[in-house]
Specification:
Aldehyde Dehydrogenase, Chain A, domain 2; seven-stranded mixed beta sheet; six-stranded mixed beta sheet; binds NADP nicotinamide-adenine-dinucleotide phosphate
Amino acid sequence: MTYRTVNPYTNEVVAEYPFATDDEMDAAIAAGHRRYVEMKTESLAHRSELLHAVAAKLREHEDELARICTVDMGKLIGESKGEVELCALIADWFADHAEGLLAPDAIDTIATGSARVLHHPLGVVVMVEPWNFPYYQIMRVFAPNYMVGNAMVLKHAANTPTSAKRFCEIVEEAGVPAGTLTNLFLSYDQVSKAIADTRVQGVALTGSERGGRAVAEAAGKQLKKTTMELGGMDPFIVLADADMADVNDIAWRVRLYNCGQVCTSSKRFIVADAVYDDFLEALRENFRRVAPGDPLDPATTLAPMNTAKARAKLQGQVDAALAAGGTLIEGDAPIDLSGQFMRPTILTDITPDNPAYRTEMFGPVASVYRVQDEDEAVALANDSPYGLGGIVFAGDPRHGAEVAARIETGMVFVNNFMASLPELPFGGVKMSGYGREMSRIGQMAFVNEQLVVTAPHSDLSNPAGGLVAA
Ligand code: NAP
């Protein structure tokens, strides 16, 4: 494994970076610890101002950042620009809301005096991030942790090093002091060493179940708090009375956005018998309509996948699904371009013994299931090792919300695509991980929720005093 930018459209090696040395890692953790101590004496208003400055800097550099991201991992240039804007939105939101979120919470108690929970930083947080949204994944951790006063060391994916490097430079160019967020090209062993350092007090990982297990194990050994944002096989349920114009307009987009390489892409379409044929035909038409090409060209609507390895893995999964009895409805044909392209593919007849039934396919492949009723739809949605997100389309939105509440995932959207916004908690259950990023819950991920009970004087007559006096 080395850190390299290989343009997935041209296959050219664009940049290569050496691993960090252990000394560089130690210096980054030491600088982070110094910043943690310094930030305790800074005002939140000061950090809020600088986080707004980060948002402004990101917007100012949108074109440059978008180009870097597209060359690193291949996404459509318009999607890269959207990602930069989303990062700026997240920074602005935490800059505006952190002071309120982090204000002390008063507790009604029978203890003598007043009880409050204060929200303190913990120290240095190690973040391990994936390539699919190279900037947004950093910002989800950076904004709340910077506001509370935790410093961060970033280990980004081996194939998006240029995005990682430039993002951290932009943060410093906006005025955030060096040492607050340091990008390091770390090996897996170095990640474990960093986690073991006593100055490191939290670990946030977004990635696969494989990466999650390894990093959570290293953190568990050191009793370090973790959040794990892992994979998903999100269901997209279409009830018989759904508005099919809306469904057909959204379904292909939620599978092909970011070339299908999104943890919350709808990967399993679970469709009521009455509308199944209509749905399948529309999905096929829409999948056929996309135009592969240079992702830097705004006219392109199908991007290459992020690496040759990822494309080969997905092709192997499609082959295995077909060998196990799946039916090919669309796709699985070559595209006459040299980049890492995969034609949008639709599979049906995926039975529980097919590997595709329980394996995440991280690219433009949709599995479509026919169900006879709502109970069957919910049972199928829940028969998954993952529990990240989901979508329900229903004629009656209130009933759609009732169905949503029966789905074993961390997030469900009714009658619309899933949106990731700073005020909404993001995360899952089962093998999709634990903990939440963004929102108030994400703000509290790496916080010492310290109880302080202040009495005017000691009071042994208080019933709670008996516990101490016993
Ligand atoms: P991955 O292989 O787990 O990589 C993610 C990050 O973890 C990378 O920085 C990777 O470094 C690092 N990593 C992997 N194994 C490690 C180890 N043993 N020790 C230290 N670091 C390690 O994930 P991926 O397959 O590239 O990313 C796609 C997956 O992420 C999908 O499953 C997707 O659903 C999931 N995802 C989840 C969310 C969410 O919020 N729930 C969001 C986006 C993606 P290297 O690149 O150097 O290997």
